[in-house]
Amino acid sequence: MIVTAVIAEYNPFHNGHAWQLMKARELTGADYLIVLMSGDFVQRGTPALLDKHVRAKMAILGGADLVLELPCMFSTGSAQYFSRGAVSLLDALSCVGFLCFGSECGEISPFLILSDILCKEPSDYQEVLQQLLRRGYSFPSARNKALVEYCTKNPKHLQGMTPGELNDFLQWPNNILGLEYCQALLACHSAIQPVTISRQGSSYHEEQLPGDEQIFPSATAIRTAIRSGSDPELLHAGIPKKSYPLLANALEANALLFEDDFNLLLAAKLLTETPKSLSSYFDITEDLANRIYRHKNEFTGIRQFTALLKTRELTYSRISRGLLHILLNLREVQPPSYERVLGFQKTAGPLLSSITKNSTLPLITKPALAQENLSEAAFSAFAQDIYAANLYETVRSQKNGTPFLHEYQKPLVLL
Description:
The protein has helices at residues 15-28, 52-61, 72-75, 79-92, 109-120, 123-134, 139-153, 163-169, 173-187, 219-227, 233-236, 244-252, 263-271, 275-278, 286-295, 302-309, 316-328, 349-358, 370-373, 376-400; strands at 3-8, 32-38, 41-42, 46-47, 66-70, 98-103, 193-198, 339-344, 363-364, 413-414.
């Protein structure tokens, strides 16, 4: 049985995602495709546009056989935490043969070479990295500059690229995340083989919907169009036909969430915090904690406050994630301790049987029974996800005036 995995947010699921799943199955000869998907909050430090159950259904309609949830402690972390948590979960399934990811590069060899350097951290590379950090560069910028300098001095690692081309390679978000996946595979000595597919259509950060129906839109463009109140029909061409009604229904029901829907919750939370307590949250340094505390009375909204706090050393995404961790009461990252199923195809029975038999972590299909099957530490981590899901559901139900549905009451997606 050949099993291929994809790590995703699907925020929301669009034609480019469906194409990637199709190509992943084709390139690896997969019998089954597993998607490990972020829950109700995503890596840029925001709520997902649609709740995870709707997005899981969109993914299954779009070609996935099984959708598992990436816990919020990983899904809302930096690229390193995101990738290492996700890869550890996939490796624990003991059935995944390939990890397929999209990239601007489309060739796997640079990822393998560069990830090996980043894992080994040669002294020449480490020295330049520390110098740049002391000069005030953010870690992502310092790492990229140090890697380019190291490879320039050791040209065998350039693999035919010029230093300028390597620098360009390191600027693209999907390439950066792909490097993190490959590092994570090396770090946990996984037998899973990485496979990359060249990203098609609009770039990751493109905020405009393409005028050509043949060009895949970016998820950023779709969210921007929805936020600005664009005609929903403009979205239709970019979303798979089977999945589009789910997005259309959520639009009509006013059930889509953005970060500023959580403004009052975060404002109230900040009223109770001190610099010391702020420092206890995951991803909040002492400097950031002091900065948040000094400016908290200037808070008018999450997006406004994040932009206000931004500095050369502190990126917008870093601050956004930190504020989300305060909101979700996330204070530490624990090792993966369970696998949670969000949905699956009825034909995926053999895959589920294999996971149940061979996974090194317990498989959760009924959240209400999780406490019976998990250790105390694992259930504590699981409870964080339940809290995050219920917080999301609280805001959604208040926004569109529909009844609150506890996470334990939500059924698996089964198609």
